[in-house]
Write a structure and sequence with these properties.
Layout lengths: L1 E14 L3 E8 L3 E7 L18 E7 L7 E10 L2 H4 L2 H17 L7 H16 L8 H11 L5 E2 L13 E3 L4 E3 L7 E3 L2 H11 L13 H18 L9 H4 L4
Parallel strand pairs: 3-5, 6-8
Antiparallel strand pairs: 1-2, 1-4, 2-3, 4-5, 7-8, 7-9
Helix pairs in contact: 2-4, 4-6
């Protein structure tokens, strides 16, 4: 079957002398590996189209019983040149795409997650804002899109900075009272981060003055939450790069 789909490049590995196997997050089929013959030849146009984090329109021959499909054609869908040449932007994209690669499955499309990722990569490429503070927001959105979004108890004032707030891992909520299980008490700046993220004030997040230690701690809290609630989430190899921008 000939399939056409927008897709995002997640990974590439060499195959024989001149080819590559590219792993894609496709809107049509979820995670898909495609064989691109002649990728490394001098006259190939694919290196300029199918680099890490590229958003493309791809045509491939799809057979459910195959683990690797064969590409027929690909075109650039959204330019990501600015992201590729900006270390901070690329570090954020790598961290996000590594988590997405862990949680999506072959043959299982997720239209909402794909749409969010595509829009974010376009925004990231075009923005003049610093992406440094964004990863906890991306973790929260991934949790929401995968059906395990963090909730707030009705009894707490998430908009009120005077409250002490706990992030309760097992119940998946923010509360003034810690659960019997694992809970993290949020610092004032971390509480503010949640207020912005959960009340639609996301434009304020890039401008927040949050030091590296508190940002890393917040990312860790959310990593623990994602690992607890979503199968397949593991430590990220890209963190060695990502932590350089904090």
């Amino acid at each position: 079957m000939l399939a056409e789909s927008p897709a995002i490049v997640l990974k590439s590995v060499d195959f024989k002398e001149s080819s590559k196997i590219i792993t894609l997050f496709s809107r049509e089929h979820g995670k898909v590996a495609v064989l691109v013959r002649g990728f490394k030849r001098k006259k190939s146009r694919y290196p300029g189209i199918m680099s890490y984090g590229s958003v493309i329109d791809v045509v491939y021959y799809y057979k459910e019983s195959r683990s690797v499909q064969t590409i027929k054609d690909a075109e650039m869908r959204i330019g990501t040149v600015k992201t590729q040449s900006d270390f901070k932007k690329l570090a954020i994209a790598m961290a996000l795409l590594e988590v997405i690669s862990q949680v999506i499955q072959e043959g299982e499309p997720n239209d909402e997650l794909f749409g969010f990722t595509e829009r974010f990569l376009k925004w990231l490429n075009d923005t003049e804002e610093s992406p440094r503070n964004l990863f906890p927001y991306l973790q929260l959105r991934l949790a929401e899109l995968l059906g395990v979004g963090i909730q707030t108890d009705e009894s707490i004032g998430i908009k009120d900075p005077e409250y002490s707030i706990f992030m309760n891992i097992q119940s998946g909520n923010l509360s003034n009272i810690p659960d019997d299980g694992l809970s993290f008490k949020l610092t004032p700046i971390q509480q503010q981060y949640f207020r912005y993220a959960l009340t639609g004030k996301t434009a304020a997040i890039p401008k927040m003055e949050i030091d590296a230690q508190e940002l890393k701690q917040l990312i860790y809290h959310l990593d623990v939450y994602l690992k607890h609630h979503i199968d397949g989430v593991r430590d990220r190899k890209s963190d060695a790069i990502f932590e350089q921008i904090l």
